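Sequence in, structure out. Go.
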Amino acid sequence: MINLDKNTTQTIIVDLQSVTTLTPVSYLFEVINDMNPNQIKYFTGIDLSPATYRYNRYNITESGSTFQNLFGSTGATGTIINLRTGEYTYNIYQSTGATLSVSATTGEIISTGKLRVNGVDTDLPSIYR
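Output:
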């Protein structure tokens, strides 16, 4: 399980190399809201691992903004995403190019799991809290 706190940067470690069949490889992350499966977020990341043959390390910043963009943004030191508080299912796809499209990948999910976003959504009217 991946745990993210709102408005903070977390380092996540995943083992993707052991299931990767492509070289060179890029990974596409798909995050699906468990309460509303129509809310899907896609992002790629910069692998910051010094030993990519053993594990993959990503810095992910949950920006605390509204769930407005379909895609996360990737900078030099990590990925910025906007997610509502709650539980998600994540899928990771492999690709030979940096892409934000499942159709541009092999279509095969190489890793899946749960992602939890902790914190308070500040963009909701108080009537919904």
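Check: Residues 32 and 38 are 8 Å apart (CA to CA). The domain at 2-128 is CATH 2.60.40.10 (Immunoglobulin-like).
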